[in-house]
Design brief:
The protein is α+β, with helices and mostly antiparallel strands. It has 2 domains: about 120 residues, SH3 type barrels; about 35 residues, no CATH class. The strands form 2 sheets. Strands 6-7-5-4-1-8 form a 6-stranded antiparallel sheet. The longest helix has 14 residues. The termini are far apart.
């Protein structure tokens, strides 16, 4: 197995927080963790720090970028889910491609068949990502995952595509 910096397409173990939801446990620098009070304090002061106790899980993730974001000190990743934790109907839906929020990975990772949660986009610090590589997703599969994310999140990529097509046409001397 490979060690080193995470790269786009890597599948690695990582410590990933569960989706943030109430009830919260923790304290805000302004007092308790009453969300309305914290929001009011943020409006008044411009910033409020909160210390939270959150549930997390160690699970395989798919690395979406080949560099650690210097502005955030973290990697963008997608969480994965074991197929056997889903009902038979849900598994069939994922296998048939009928669930737009889940993409079935071609290979088996960490001993089980997994689906990528396309709406499970998470940013995690590099210190929360295991150095040892579990596996790699190929370019074609990463392209499919990228298209799935763009569609599911309703990202408007038209301008970006038009600019790229124009640049290629210029490079080829066709425009």
């Amino acid at each position: 197995m490979s060690f080193g910096l995470p790269m786009r397409g890597d599948v690695r173990w990582a410590l990933v927080p569960y989706t943030f939801e109430a009830p919260f446990m923790g304290t805000a620098w302004t007092g308790g963790v009453d969300l309305d009070g914290v929001v009011d304090a943020a409006r008044a002061n411009g910033r409020v720090g909160i210390e939270l106790i959150m549930k997390a899980k160690v699970r395989p993730v798919v690395i979406l970028q080949s560099f650690e974001s210097t502005s955030h000190g973290a990697y963008a990743v997608l969480r994965t889910r074991r197929m056997e934790t889903m009902s038979a109907a849900a598994q069939a839906s994922v296998r048939d491609g009928d669930d737009p929020a889940l993409y079935l990975l071609a290979d088996t990772y960490a001993g089980s068949k997994r689906a990528v949660l396309l709406n499970g986009l998470t940013r995690i610090d590099s210190t929360a990502i295991e150095r040892q590589l579990i596996g790699r997703i190929g370019d074609d599969e990463m392209a499919t995952i990228s298209r799935g994310i763009a569609g599911l999140l309703e990202l408007d990529l038209d301008q970006l595509i038009q600019e790229r097509v124009a640049a290629v046409l210029i490079e080829q001397g066709l425009a």
